[in-house]
Amino acid sequence: MFTEAMGQVPAGVGVVTVKDGRDDLGTTVATLLSVSLEPPLVLVSLDSSSYLTEVLLRNDRWAASLLADGQQAIASRFATPGRPSARLLLASTPHHRGDHSEALVIDGGVTALEVETTRVVPAGDHTLFIGQVLGVAYVDVSKAPLVRLRGRYRPVPGIKPTPEA
Questions:
Q1: CA 55 from chain center: how many Å?
Q2: Cα gap 57→120, rounded to integer Å
């Protein structure tokens, strides 16, 4: 019942990535939120039993690419269990390595952030990573965000891209 209740709340979809030695890892998230403007802090919630959580507990710097409507395939690739390296998942997708985190940043979304974890909070079966934003790779107000609602990626009625100034 709780899952169905929370499924009624639309959430922006992103991909969190981290460089781990010679490998790159990532996962799809729908729980990335702004916590503070000064200093700029964000929070991401990850399954405590995931390998990405284990890696983020030893690597403080990571990236979050917030996807645009039309990037559903990228979100699905990173949400698939047993997925290969993030580099393989992004082989045909424009991306770059972040200046601050060295994590892979997906291009073509609505925004991308590079973050350094400042606090880790166990929360039930998840772990919350609160981090300070080190840099904003890009912001594209001309695109509508990718949103997950009721277990599916959906367009958001009434949300239109903002024309660039």
A1: 15
A2: 8
As beta bridge partners, residue 147 has 12, 154
d(CA 14, CA 66): 4
User: What pTM, to 2 d.p., does this model score?
Assistant: 0.91
Whether the CB-CB separation of 44 and 64 falls below 8 Å is answered with: yes
Closest CA to 9 of 151, 130, 120: 151
pLDDT (tens digit per residue) in 100-131:
999 999 999 999 999 999 999 999 999 999 99
What is the rounded CA–CA span in Å between residue 12 and residue 43?
Answer: 13
Model confidence pLDDT, tens digit, residues 55-109: 999 999 999 999 999 999 999 999 987 777 888 889 899 999 999 999 999 999 9
Q: Which residue has the higher pLDDT, 160 or 69?
A: 69
Tokens of 11: 């959430």
Measured CA to CA, the distance from residue 57 to residue 117 in angstroms comes to 9
Give the phi and the psi of residue 15 in degrees, each rounded to 5: -125, 125
E strands within the chain? 11-12, 14-20, 23-29, 32-37, 40-47, 61-66, 95-97, 104-106, 111-123, 126-139, 147-149, 152-154
